Structure formats: C-alpha cells, structure tokens
Amino acid sequence: MAGTVGRPRKQSPRRRGSTAREEILDASSELFTRHGFATTSTHQIAEAVGMRQASLYYHFPSKNDIFMTLLMSTIQPALDLASDLAESDESPALKLWALVAAETRILLSSNWNIGRLYQLPVLTNDEFAEYHAARAQLEGIYRDLAAQIVGEDDPRIELPFHMTLAAIEMRDNTGIAPYPLVDDALPAPSVTIADAVLDVLHADIPQRRGERTLELVSRVSAEMPTS
After folding, report:
1. Which of 108, 113, 112 is nearest to 182 (CA)?
2. DSSP class of residue 45?
3. Contact 197/163 with Cβ under 8 angstroms?
4. Domain membership flag for residue 13
5. Residue spans with biased composition (Basic residues) (predicted)?
6. 209 and 149 both lie in a single domain
7. Which stretches in the chain have pLDDT values below 70?
8. In terms of domains, do 194 and 150 share one?
9. How many Cβ atoms are within 10 Å of 195's Cβ, its own excluded?
10. 30 FRET partner, CA 20 to 30 A, in 39, 147, 171, 224?
11. Residue 113, CA distances (Å) to 116, 169, 206 in order
12. pLDDT attached to residue 202
C-alpha cells in the first residue's frame, strides 16, 4: 500500500482551510489576535490544528514566518491593486476610493480580525522589516493620491490611510468573517469609509464607484499568479 503524502497529523483536521497550511494560518490568526504573539507558542498552534509540532515546521520555518504571512496577506492585495491603478487613466479620486474600499474589504473578509496584528508590540522587531517596508510603500501611495486631489502641502493627505484602518475597529473577532468576499458587491462599511475619505478631502464621489472598483479588483486578481 502506498504511504501517505505529507506529514502525519495527530488527528483529523479541526480548523478552516483546504490545506494544512491554511489551517495553521487560521489557528494562528485566532491565537495571535486573542492572546498576542509573545504568549502564543508553536506548540499551541500545532495543538489547535491537530498536528504534531514538528509537522508545523514542515509548512512554516518559524512562528515569525507565520506572523509575517498573516501581515502580508492584508498589505499585498492593496499593493497589487495600487500598481494596476497607477497604469490606469482613472481619476485620482476614483483611484483613492478604490484603494480604500479594496483594503477595507480585505480587513473585513477574514475569519479573524488580523488587522489587530498591526497593533502588537512585536512589530518593533527588526525581523519584520519587510512588512514595515511594504506598509510604508502603501502609505506613500495613499498620500500621493490624496496629494493629487488637495495638494502636497495639505495636512489632510495623511488621513486616508489611517481612516482605512478604522475597519479594524468596525468588526468583531469571533472567527466568522463579517463580510465574506463576493464578486459582485462591496461591504457596506467599505463604501462608508471610502466615501468618508473623499468627503474629508472635499472631493466629488465618482460615478459607479463600487462597480468600477470591483472591475479593477477582478482584473488584478485574474493577473495574479496562482500558487
């Protein structure tokens, strides 16, 4: 009889996810957001998934690597969209609206409120320099788009990025996504926050903003390589 493929489990899967890697991320999301990074061990993560601790390292080299994967899952989609927006002929107002709506959509669609990870003290660790670089890049894009609307000397250009993070405080952390991703609609809070951003900048709300944003997001998703 052929042997089993991959690493053995202590018991059958108990977490959400179609792969062991996804189950590890789900368990880690719960433990990190509820108990913090420092007090969560790889042993606890493995136990929550139902696998041997040694098997966890087959999928992730370290706890830091799991943490970084979760962090980047909230940043990278927005950076990918921003890159596509930069090549489009859309107005700065629509580009900014779409970026806000798309990033809040990601923050609101996860089972656990992983946006909370941004607030953990461990992020001062130099091992997370890649995340800080990505976040600084994204903040710069928000700032540049706002500056195209109100001018570089206007202090309001700092607001859109931080207003976007309000989505973290507008959702729960129960393990059930408040707004699962769908192809034909944006979460109501995403629309509210994106509208508020343009209102603060005294910019007109673009026509068909939601529909056009979903078209842009769909295009970027189609262009992304599958793993």
Report:
1. 108
2. H
3. yes
4. no
5. 7-18
6. yes
7. 1-17, 223-227
8. yes
9. 15
10. 224
11. 6, 9, 29
12. 98
CA atoms of 195 and 15, how far apart (whole Å)? 36
Phi, psi of 132 (to 5 degrees): -65, -35
216: nearest Cα among 130, 34, 94:
94
CATH number of the structural domain spanning residue 44:
1.10.10.60
Overall size of the chain counted in residues: 227
Q: Is 69 exposed, middle or buried (0-12, 13-18, 19+ CB in 10 A)?
A: middle
Residue 149 · residue 92 · CB < 8 Å: yes
Distance CA 217, CA 202 (A): 25
Q: Which domain holds residue 32?
A: 20-61
Which H or E run contains 63? helix 63-86
- 180 belongs to a structural domain: yes
CB 20 within 8 A of CB 68: no
Is the alpha carbon torsion for 179, 183, 189, 193 positive or negative?
Answer: positive
**159 and 215 housed in the same domain:** yes
Q: 51: which strand partners?
A: 9
Question: What does the alpha-carbon distance between residue 93 and residue 203 come to, in Å, rounded to a whole number?
Answer: 7
Query: Does 46 lie in the same domain as 143?
Result: no
Per-residue pLDDT at 214: 94
